[in-house]
Structure formats: structure tokens, C-alpha cells
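Feature request disguised as a bug report, sorry. It would help if multi-protein outputs had a clear separator. Right now it looks like this:
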Amino acid sequence: MKLAVMHNRLSPQEDGRFQSFPRNSWREEFACAAQAGVPNIEWIDDTYGADITPLRTDEGVEEMLALMKKYGVAIPSICADSFMEEPLVRCTEQEREERLQLLDLLFHQAKKVGAAHLGIPFLDNSALNTKEEIDQAALALQSILPVLEKLDMELHLETSLDPENFVYFLKQINHPSVKVTYDTGNSAGMGYNPKEELAAYGEHLGSVHIKDRILNSSTVELGTGDTDFAAVKEELDRLQFDGLFTLQGARGEEGKEVEQIRKYHTFSTQTFGVA
């Protein structure tokens, strides 16, 4: 098992955004991750940082690799929030094609920094609201499957779908390298049963986001919301899950981001045994 921290959780919010590419401090976050004792970052790619992110250029990747080496920090995964803001559904065919071209680029760039998977969230603005949209998204993602095979990488999907419809989505794509990102907080916020969810996903489970939320409400500090962490741990143990955990808890006091992540690190070690 490996523990990462979500990009931007080590920096203050920018422009009132709870989660975004840290335009002002992406370089500093490598040192902060090392200081927090979580030397893995789940890197965010989004529209907010599209014009400045180093991930999208080879020159930028070289700078990332130098910082990774300097601070002993790895990037095991990419969180492609770009596709939450500009989804693969409810768009024109031309827009979808352009977004799939970006996805192709991101997979190739992710490989260069050593990432094993890229995650796409189908949440909020990109939520799949009908069977037609599920089928449409599945068809679009099938076009990227040759890239996964060529690069030996995985695509992890996070959705607001109930287990039955999420499994249907996976079956429509039908590829062993397409996995589930299970978000402990989003599950609680939507009132899902973690044992039912994880039992349904089974071998499709690829990664876990550690978060806490209140039912039908917002993200809160780990251990203070409605997430049934004991049930999640029991089911993960049953599945013998040994993949990536990413800290994605609520923010604390501005300026004390490293201390907050250290606190969450301790919580995760005690709860899941992941160091």
C-alpha cells in the first residue's frame, strides 16, 4: 500500500477554489510533501492551471522530474479534474474529440513522470445522469484503451453512480485496466453503503481517496463526519486491497497545511495501516 496527498492540499486555496492546480506554489509542494512525511502527490490537471501546468510540456516534465529527485517525492497518479470541468458528455462531437486528444496527451505525459494511473472524476458538472450518458462516456473511453495497453497504465474512474450503475459503466467499457477510485467521503455524503459498494466493485477497485463527509453535506475533517471507516477497512481487508490511498480531507487553518496533512497521515496509519 502507498499513501499520497492530493495536489494543492499542501497550499492555501487559490481564488476560492477548494481543490485546484496550485498555480502559485506547485514547486513548493514537493518540499511540503516531504516535510509532511507523505512523499507522494496525486497531481491535479485542470482547466484552472491548463496554461501553466508543467505536466503538459516536455520542458515542464523535466522540471518536475528534477524536483521529484531533489525532494524524494513521487507522482503515482494524475487526477484529471479537467474532465470534470469539461466532461466527455453533454458536449459536441468536436469538443469530445478535443478532450480525448487531451486525455491521450495526459496519459503519455503521466508515464514520463512515473505515474501508474490517471483518474477521471464523473462528479458534479461531469456526473453521468442517465443510461444514455453512461453509454456515451463508455464509448468515448473505449477509444483510449489502446493507449492504456501501449503504456501499461490504468484508468481509474470516480463517479456519483450507485454500485449497480457503476458496475454497468465498467462492463460497457470492459477492460481490465479500467478501475474504480473509491472515495470514502463521497460515498458517505451520498448515503451509500460501503460494504455493498466495495463488494460490487471487487477486483475492479484500483485506488482509494480518504475523505470524510456529512450525509448530504460537505467535506469535514477526517473522523468527524458520517464515513464508516471501520466498515471500509473491513471490506478493503477482505479484498486484500494493496493499491494507492490518497489523502483528500477537508482543509484546516490556512498556513498550517503541512501540519494538517501530518495529522491526516496519522489518522490513515491508525485506520488503514498505510504509511
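(second protein starts here, but nothing in the output says so)
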Amino acid sequence: MVIDLKKKAHELRLDILRMFYLSGTGHMAPALSCVDIFTTLYFGDVISWEKRFSEERDRIVLSKGHACAALYAVLAHAGYFPREELLTFYQRNTRLGGHPDIGLPGIETATGALGHGICFATGTALAAKLDGRLYHTYVVMGDGESQEGSVWEAAAFAANQGLSNMTVVMDCNGLQASAYIEDISSIEPLKAKWESFGWTVLECSGHDFSELIQSFEHAKATERPTIILARTIKGKGVSLAENNPAWHSRAPKGEEWDKICEEYQIRKEELTRL
């Protein structure tokens, strides 16, 4: 399983690079840090695969909407829309904009303003509980996003309602839009904060598939809402961008692509086609 997931994650990163090569804009580094999380969710036997197109599907919400390239790539590979459509990312008349929109199959809600995705997800989890339905709601959010007050309102409400059918994965890469989080407004101690709100808190590497799978399995077995603090590297897979605040909202240019192609052992023309 782990070998298959590593291969799939590599394929997804290549498609994400193609998207940014052709568009020349967007948030590449935030997308790369959560690729392995999405790979595990969709291809690691976490969600109910056979129900993914039905009303009983598990709900997956990307709260850090600017990282949508990762979600688009995984949705295409999971059969929600043709993979060829990835080549239209961030271009005129595309369905694949800079933030996800509900006009695209697989998108549960539009997200952009940070702190809103977890609030929406709390509603879907509560609805499932009230209706006696068995689907699980997953949220992928950023760590810098937890500076938003709405995150903590949702956290308090989810715990009070006993929403054990809700799992949040926090993409903990230590960076936000313009700098390191600790240099702007520290959010630690995250584990203690979420525990104090009544959540089950798990910690793992966000790039280790075995740890991610184990965490998701544990989350399903708890009687409280769960948050997985997944420690990641922003820009993972592109050394120029890794852990570098300057790469939050930009795509590579010029000779930077030569270095990336060398890293991935591909020719630049391969970035123009699937």
C-alpha cells in the first residue's frame, strides 16, 4: 500500500507542476505540502470509495482553498472529471480556478477566506448526525489558518455536539502567506489548545503514508471530533520552494523550471502534456 501511495503522490506532483507551468501563476507551495494528505484520503482506503459519487459519500472540505491545485489533481485521478482538464488550471473559462468552486464535481463548498471550511464541515457533520447518516466529514486546513477566530468557534461547537464523525487534518508546515507563523503570531501549543476544546488530538508526519493511515484509522474509532496535526514541508518535492516563505503565491519562472525538470528527471516539454 505505501509503495502504491508513493507512486500516486509522485504522479500527482507531476500533474501539479504541469498546471503551474502552463498557468504561470497560483499557490504552488501550499498545494505541494498537502499532496500526501490528499493521496492518503482518496487512495489509502480512508474514504468510502464506492460511495464517492452518491449522497452517502464521505465529505472532504479543503479549508485552505488556495491549495486547490492539489485537490484538483487528486479529483481528476479519482475520476471526478477528465484528467486533461487539469491543463486548463487558472485559465480563462476554466472550472479550475484559483480557489475551489462548487461547480466542479467533488467540491463540497467554495473556500477562499480562511477559517470558513471548518465551519461548513461542522454543519455537514451535524447534519449527518441528526439525519442518522453514516458518512464522515474530513477537513484539510492550514496551521496559519488557526489564527482565525472562526476556527475556534467551530472547534468548540463540534466538541459540544459530540461530532465524532468529523476529522480535521491540519497541514502544519509552519508558514503562512508572508513569513513563518511564529514570527507573525504563534499558534502553539496546538495539541494542548485542541485538547482543551475537547478534541482527540493525533500527531504524525504529513509525508509518511503509514503514519497518516494509522492516524485516520484511530480517528474513526474515537468518540470525539479528531484533529490530526500533520507535520509537513511547504513546497514538498520542489527543493527551490521547500520551507521558503517567498514561494507562497508564485509559480516557477525561467531557469527555475530547468532545475525542477532536472529534479524530476523529465524534459520541459513533458510539462505541456499529460
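Even a blank line would do. Unrelated, but nice: The two ends are 25 Å apart (CA to CA).
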